[in-house]
């Protein structure tokens, strides 16, 4: 059995997930170090990134003390097994896969499947999702989370897609339990060109917006 080091309680204290897609091997360590310096702690490497399993394995060995590393864009049971073998501590996907859900449950891995409609969200949650990834969140807007939370108040939701410092508080106040940052900050060009200071600054601004929101509601 694989053993996940994913700490849900810690994630909920500062619920921000970083998404790395398409990073080069030459820039990978620098990107991870930048995330650590910025204060980000939970990061997924998408499986459609070249050599993703190798990158996940390296990150799990070299950065496990500072980062919780997961695998994203997990579309099949084979993907999930490969990611877990590489050392992924949680699994993220744009869709729900029942076989992946069962595998994560059996192996003790946190699972973040994507869903959009109320029926899809409920199905993902009942399948054992740690949190349901509402994707693409920007197509629905913050108010959608408020509507969904009406009947599905116990379901934990993560807003993914189009989230930034200017609208973070809207999504969180509407009921999103977590948010993700990705391509707008961790663009292919920035990672390739090793623009680490710029990436760090923007992650810090993102995290500050999250902390500011929780500080206003006395959340600890």
Keywords:
seven-stranded parallel β-sheet, alpha/beta, globular, single chain, TIM Barrel, 10 helices, 220 residues, two-stranded parallel sheet
- Tertiary shape: globular
CATH level 3 topology = TIM Barrel
Report how far the terminal alpha carbons are from each other.
33 Å
Count of DSSP H/I helices: 10
The counted number of beta strands is 9
Low-confidence region ranges: none
- Measured by DSSP, the beta-strand proportion falls in 15-25%
The string of secondary-structure elements, in order, is HEHEHEHEHEEHEHEHEHH
Question: Topology, please?
Answer:
Elements: H1 8-13, E1 16-20, H2 25-38, E2 42-46, H3 52-62, E3 68-72, H4 77-86, E4 90-92, H5 98-107, E5 110-112, E6 114-115, H6 118-126, E7 132-134, H7 142-149, E8 157-159, H8 168-174, E9 178-181, H9 188-192, H10 196-216
Parallel strand pairs: 1-2, 1-9, 2-3, 4-5, 6-7, 7-8, 8-9
Question: Could you please describe the fold and organization of this structure?
Answer:
There is one protein chain. The chain has one domain: Aldolase class I (TIM Barrel). The model has no long low-confidence stretch (mean pLDDT 95). The chain is built from ten helices and nine strands. The protein has a seven-stranded parallel beta sheet with strand order 3-2-1-9-8-7-6. A two-stranded parallel ribbon has the order 4-5. The chain is α/β, with parallel strands linked by helices and 220 residues long. The protein has helices at residues 8-13, 25-38, 52-62, 77-86, 98-107, 118-126, 142-149, 168-174, 188-192, 196-216, and strands at 16-20, 42-46, 68-72, 90-92, 110-112, 114-115, 132-134, 157-159, 178-181.
């Amino acid at each position: 059995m694989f053993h996940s080091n994913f700490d849900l309680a810690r994630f909920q204290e500062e619920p921000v997930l970083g998404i790395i897609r398409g990073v080069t091997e030459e820039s990978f360590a620098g990107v991870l170090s930048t995330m650590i310096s910025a204060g980000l702690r939970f990061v997924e490497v998408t499986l459609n990134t070249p050599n993703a399993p190798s990158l996940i394995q390296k990150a799990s060995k070299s950065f496990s003390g500072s980062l919780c590393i997961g695998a994203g864009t997990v579309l099949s049971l084979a993907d999930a097994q490969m990611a877990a073998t590489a050392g992924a501590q949680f699994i993220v996907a744009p869709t729900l896969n029942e076989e992946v859900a069962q595998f994560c449950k059996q192996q003790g891995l946190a699972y973040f499947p994507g869903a959009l409609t109320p029926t899809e969200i409920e199905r993902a949650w009942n399948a054992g999702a740690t949190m349901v990834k509402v994707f693409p969140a920007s197509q629905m807007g913050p108010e959608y989370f408020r509507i969904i939370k009406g009947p599905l108040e116990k379901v934990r939701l993560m807003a993914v897609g189009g989230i930034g410092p200017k609208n973070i508080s809207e999504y969180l106040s509407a009921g999103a339990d977590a948010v993700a940052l990705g391509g707008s900050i961790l663009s292919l060009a920035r990672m390739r060109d090793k623009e680490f200071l710029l990436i760090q600054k923007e992650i810090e601004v993102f995290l500050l917006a999250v902390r500011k929101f929780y500080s206003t509601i006395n959340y600890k």
